[in-house]
Amino acid sequence: MAMPEAAIAASAVPGSLPPAAEVVLPIAGRGLVVRRGGRTLIDGIDIAFDGHGLTVVLGANGAGKSLLLRLLAGLVAPDGGTVTWGGTPPQRRHAPFVGFVFQRPVMLRRTALGNVRYALKAAGVPRSMRDAIAHRALGDAGLGDLAGWPARLLSGGEQQRVALARALASSPRALLLDEPTSNLDPASTLAIENLVLAARKAGTRIVLVTHDLGQARRLADEIVFLHAGRVLERAPAQHFLDGPSSGQAQAFLEGRIVL
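Predicted structure:
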């Protein structure tokens, strides 16, 4: 897996979205397999994300949701199969167009503003533009008054908003989110969801892993349901939520244990 600072650097983008950003879509996995300790965690997944909209990835604990997201982000190498961005293997020069936010925010030993500036620098944004872009991103996240605070002294919800502001410093073409509101209070959850919806409206392709059915109902355009490392269903959100086609998905929606 990539080191945290490398992943952070990959989550920033330049001040505007150039046509070259389209080269990262579709983000696709073909025949993906991951094995660990004699177990198959990802079992031959074929999946692609293109265009616009917000996909929520659901499934019970251990289904492979977060691992799939890391595979697609290029943070984990598969044991079998391939990941491509725009039809070619992920390339470092295209990484600024694919944002990633971890379940637990990774804060550098800098201020909130410094965290965003670092990502912008890594993405090649001119120094003269970084402060304005970073202040705007933090302001959009409701953190303008905390720009000068050490990021590691902020609350968990504030840190996650810094992480998302860092990823959305401008307009990534794709944004991959791994349980971004897990264990956060309702106010922080609402703030993050509003940022995600604003990014979706701006045209960013979003893939969001969550265990929260309420969040899926609020945000999703479509649902991907994973079970035992396989994609069992992919359907428009309302269609899936009203009547999934697999017994495992029905059990999950009803809150039953899924084996």
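Summary: The chain has one domain: 4-253.
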